[in-house]
Amino acid sequence: MITAVNCEGNGLSSAMQEINDRLAQQGVFGPGSPELALYEQRLTRFFEREFRRHQGNPQSLDALGISTADGPVMEDTGELMESHYDERPEFFAAFLDRHYRAYSMAWYGDSADEVHASTVTLEQAQRDKFALIAGRAGIQGDERVLNIGCGFGSLETFLLEEYPDIQVTGITPSKVQIEFLQQRMRDPADVMSSGRFRLIAGEFDPQSLEQIGLASYELVTSIGVIEHVRNMKLLLECIAQTLVPGGRSFHHFITSQAPIPQFLDPAKTRISLYFPGGRVWPHGEFLQHTERFEPEGSWFVNGMNYWRTLDEWHQRYWNGLTSLYGPVFDAQVVAHWNEYFSLCKAVFAPMDGSFYGNSHYLLRLRGS
Ligand SMILES: C[S@@+](CC[C@H](N)C(=O)[O-])C[C@H]1O[C@@H](n2cnc3c(N)ncnc32)[C@H](O)[C@@H]1O
């Protein structure tokens, strides 16, 4: 049943209190409440138990009968866009950092202790993430870069602002992101209008390679995208075709230290309610498919970085409820997204972020 919460006619802080009270009456508790803290603790304990149970699993998925070398590059993209990325832009604006609109982990430090001790803003931590990636990817500043799954243009913004000679092509199938980026490209004050950014609307797959450009890029990147990939072998083959001889490829995505079989079947996970077709691959899997590449580096980034990013997003979302939904809104919609942030936080928190985190990989095209 849809339940409306009305908070019209109050000052800001009393309105927030009223929202909290009314949502609590519907069983929806926000960040800062003891009820949500207890719920997140229980979820975290559940995931920690599962992680400990599976931490000795072999890295290879073959033993589990799971293949990352068949089927399309990504699956369920239409459903994924509908249920997630094509939410209205105000939804994402309510919680993402203001400058980059990055929809991926921000970087606060190497260890859980550093993450907890960090005093930087979300905006700065997103910038630090891009700087870390630029360093690891060995960006010189004169490359033609292809960024797969460009979101709202977060990496593009960083690169175009930082390097005056770089050129970036971004690709995304999300109508909301495409419209947002097209608006930015029309704004003369925005770096995306510099003529050094090209947008491709669509999916990254074998059919789009000619439009993207064969042998046309010195660097191909993805940030927060390979969680949507089913066929890593085909993905890397497609990437190889877009690179110039000797070109590099850098990827950042969520990984686990060992495979958790039940989280590798999108039909069975709660998170696939938010990300149809989404999976968390073990850290070692990507490097099983690098026949066309020389691996030049791989890193595991502590998961407390994502926990803290999500916690910041969660608080911003909750504090912005009235700006986002107006004076009358649906408690079930709030419950849906409130659960999303809690669930995601709870997978990164166990074992001080040492089991679920993000991996970085740098590859160089062989044979050149
Ligand atoms: C978690 S967001 C990350 C966005 C951006 N890279 C960032 O860090 O801000 C995942 C991105 O992958 C894109 N994506 C999902 N399926 C895709 C597909 N089949 N082809 C290309 N991009 C896809 C989404 O539209 C979205 O832009």
Order of helices and strands: EHHHHHHEHEHEHEHEEEHHEHE
Give the N-to-C terminal Cα separation: 61 Å
- Work out the count of structural domains: 1
Shape: globular
Radius of gyration computed on alpha carbons? 21 Å
Low-confidence stretches: 7-11
Instruction: Output the CATH homologous superfamily.
Output: Vaccinia Virus protein VP39
- Give me the number of helical elements: 13
Which CATH architecture would you pick? 3-Layer(aba) Sandwich
Could you estimate the helical fraction of the residues in percent? 25-40%
Structural description of this entry:
40% of the residues lie in helices and 17% in strands. The longest helix has 21 residues, at 34-54. It is of the alpha/beta class and 368 residues long. The chain starts with a strand and ends with a strand. It is globular and about 65 Å long. Helix 8 links the parallel strand 3 (167-172) and strand 4 (197-201). Residues 7-11 have low confidence and may be disordered. Strands 2, 3, 4, 5, 6, 7, 8 and 10 form an eight-stranded mixed sheet that branches. It has a two-stranded antiparallel sheet with strand order 1-9. The protein has one domain (4-365): 3-Layer(aba) Sandwich (Rossmann fold), CATH 3.40.50. Bound molecules: S-adenosylmethionine (SAM). Residues 74, 77, 80, 85, 102-104, 148-151, 154, 171-174, 177, 203-204, 223-225, 228 line the site of S-adenosylmethionine (SAM).
